[in-house]
Amino acid sequence: LPDPGPTTPHPRTARVNTLKMSVEQALQWLRQPPPEHRRKWEAVGQLAAVDPLLPDLLAFPPGTDLHDHPLVASGALVLQSKASCMPAHALAPQSGWTVVDACAAPGNKTTHLAALMSNRGSIVAFEKDARRVERLRGNAALTGATCIEARHADFLAIEPEAPEFAGVRAALLDPSCSGSGTAFTRMDYLLPSSADRLKGGQDGRVAGGVHARENESVVADVLEEAFALGFRLADPFPAWHRRGVAGLVEGAQHLVRVDPDEDGTDGFFVALFVRDGEGGGGSG
Ligand code: SAM
After folding, report:
1. What is the DSSP letter of 228?
2. What pLDDT was estimated at residue 216?
């Protein structure tokens, strides 16, 4: 059966690409557009509000059409759901870090990571699909995310001990998740492999975001190996109300769930693995 969609429509959201504009500048533009854009865009701009959890996210009423908005065209705003903006904040990469994005295209989260890092450091972004890697490169160019190095490659085939990965501080894993079985299979493999890929780093963070029923089970499957490598589950968004389902995995309270019918954005799941005294990210 086709997915009937959420019971209540979600607010439309747009992430301010802080590589191009501050949130204050974006709000100023939206509320008082330049004269040539005023007639078409001024009314919409009055409805923008900063999301209470994510400081770089603007919310508009459901159905607001921003596709041909000048700030979207220029890459200053990225049309992105709130749930899709949570993993980069959870990972909270710092300027100067080397970060891996294992499943990167079309690059919404990669460009978000670049913005959070102020384009300082580097993001090695893997994408195995040739056409999608071009979209990733296009979006990196549009958003001015120059610290992204997009690679057309299978992340699972990389050589984890290669010197270029020795300094990796964090990895974001956002595998395809159209069916829960697929996501389960992929995450089952990706998470332990990815944890292993960070072995050489001083400390490391791994965040995963997937839509799948078996989210907690996936984490449960890799937990022992992650612990053995020195990782623990950290607490992204401590104020967030919906956590992992208790009883399915040890430490379910550390996991973040997003319910598409209750939370006003896409269904999502975030697990943040942290090593060596790292406090974990999250802005809520
Ligand atoms: N993170 C992206 C974003 O926020 O825009 C969305 C990623 S999408 C859910 C998953 C992507 O991972 C797909 O483009 C898929 O081709 C890619 N992918 C899946 N397995 C991969 C692998 N082993 N190596 C590299 N890319 C992979």
Report:
1. H
2. 87
Answer whether residue 69 is part of any domain: yes
Ligand 1 pocket check: which of 112, 127, 142, 211 to mutate, most ligand atoms within 8 Å of Cβ? Answer: 127
- The pLDDT-based confidence of 2 (bands split at 50, 70, 90) is low
pTM comes to 0.89
Torsion, CA 180, CA 183, CA 189, CA 190, rounded to 10: -150
CA distance 168 to 63: 40
Residues 74 and 87 in one domain: no
Please say if the pLDDT value at position 194 is more than 50.
no
State whether the beta carbon of 111 lies less than 6 angstroms from ligand 1: no
Q: What is the CATH number of the domain that holds 49?
A: 3.30.70.1170
Are 35 and 143 found together in one domain?
Answer: no
Q: What distance in angstroms lies between residue 47's CA and the mean position of ligand 1's atoms?
A: 33
Read out DSSP for 8-42?
SPPPEEEEE-TTT--HHHHHHHHHS--HHHHHHHH
Cβ of residue 104 lying under 6 Å from some atom of ligand 1: yes
Q: Ligand 1 pocket, 268 CB below 6 A?
A: no
Expressed in angstroms, the distance from the first to the final Cα of the chain is 36
